[in-house]
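Handout, section B. The chain below has 293 residues.
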Amino acid sequence: MTTAAVTAAQAKHLSRARRQGWLEPGLLYLFLAVAVILTGAPFVYMITGSFKPNAEIFSYPLHFIPQMPTMVNYRRLLGGHEIPYVHQFGNSALVAVTQTLLTLLFSAMVGWGFAKFEFRGKQVLLLILLATLTIPFQITLVPLFLLMLRIGWLDNYLAIIIPGAISAFGAFFMRQNMLAIPSELIDAARIDGASEWGIFWRIGLPLAKGALSVLAVLVFLGSWNDYLWPLIVLRSPDKFTYPLGLATLNGLYKIEYGMILAGAFIATLPIIVVFVVGRKHLLNNLTVGAIKG
């Protein structure tokens, strides 16, 4: 084979490899772009739809950009004449923050006990804890409602906060993370005379703050957007959380889509703030709890 033929073959091979090198990243970016459009389009339409009157929301053809932008949906929603949305927004914040703090405390305590203490029946209790993760909430809904009825917690935030503060997933998640804490630190603290509570508070919690931050976001999101259980236990409109308040705009003869979209957009702002402020810390701790126990 002549030198020219070898050079042509090498050039052809290089060209083919270059095309393949561009093809795989190109297909990946195309797939990601389609995924972003499919997931982001409803969110964008929620924002733009909140600035449209009801008639324009149902106009054809569909326009993402409002043709006649208006703030009437926000004025009606925040005015408090039709629903006390601001008050219900505060109710959601109270319930979500309280439930998140209690869940972090109880999950960390249970996880610390399973990770750093040896006691009789430990493995059995751990298996029972994991087994509860397989039980759908809908199965326990009726017994839990009867329990709340018997102790008089209906139409009370305690009926939402206390049951939600006990999380089997949270306990197992914290247990997996706390297994990585060196036992030598705990032994040294005991030698220095530290109490078990002091060891947990000064060593366990600081070293597990990554797992606590991830769990806090998950619990807060679940509580913030919860609809089914508050719908069952709450009775008074002034005690409703924001999902229940927005559901009341879905009437028999008229549905206030503009106000619903406006309320949904306002409700996403705290979540956006949490992710923007803590995105670096959260991304650095997404793999916590991944070790085997």
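Note. Residues 80-284 form a domain with the MetI-like fold fold (CATH 1.10.3720.10). Compare this with the example in section A.
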